[in-house]
Specification:
By secondary structure, the chain is an alpha+beta fold. Helix content is 33%, strand content 27%.
Length: 204
């Protein structure tokens, strides 16, 4: 404790002693002490509760409107403008973008952008290695446990199971999001347009 702090505390204690001596016959010091303790405590509790509510409100899940730099329901022209030509196109018209490691050239992730009536229906992310630039939907990525996703997003609005029962797709209509699970953890995930229906496994 510094000399200045010691002098200040001494002066404060002396002032309280003098105030008590002068007013002890006129003031209810028990009530003063009670309010002096409970008042600041009540203020701290109220401010803490307000801060917690604000934090919970800001931390609540919000619907995905963009993923992989592609806006939901964007046109083919917009996707080409934002992402360039795809690496390849699948027979159903899905655009495939392979993400490669800049040094090794190895594919570390694949994005599939599917269109319906000329607009983005979904953006599907499939990791293939260490991808330092991947997006974390709601803080989740490949390897996240099912219990963590359910704990934050609740029950899915729609589910689809692979014919052999080894994997499931959970779609969350309110959040424009889907997650593919296998062995109880996320393997693939992405954004979809609920107006076009949930993602489903195709029968083999």
């Amino acid at each position: 404790m510094s000399l200045g702090t010691g002098l200040f505390l001494s002066a404060l204690v002396l002032s309280l002693v003098i105030l008590y001596s002068v007013t002890r016959d006129r003031w209810n010091w028990r009530r003063v002490a009670l309010w002096g303790t409970l008042g600041p405590l009540a203020v701290v509790i109220v401010l803490s509760a307000a801060g917690y509510l604000v934090w919970r409100w800001e931390d609540r899940p919000k619907p995905l409107n963009s993923f992989f730099g592609v806006a939901l329901r964007a046109s083919e022209q917009d996707v080409r403008f934002m992402k360039g030509e795809p690496t390849s196109r699948e027979p159903d018209g899905t655009w495939v973008y392979d993400i490669k490691d800049s040094s090794s050239g190895q594919i570390v992730a694949t994005y599939r952008v599917q269109f319906r009536d000329g607009n983005v229906r979904y953006v599907f992310y499939a990791p293939g290695g260490y991808d330092p630039n991947k997006e974390y939907a709601f803080g989740f990525s490949d390897g996240t446990r099912l219990s963590q996703v359910s704990g934050k997003l609740g029950d899915p609005s729609d589910t689809s199971e692979k014919p052999d029962g080894s994997a499931r797709l959970y779609s969350y209509r309110d959040y424009n999001a889907f997650f593919g699970f296998s062995k109880g953890v996320v393997e693939v995930y992405g954004m979809y347009d609920p107006a076009t229906g949930p993602l489903k496994f195709t029968a083999d």
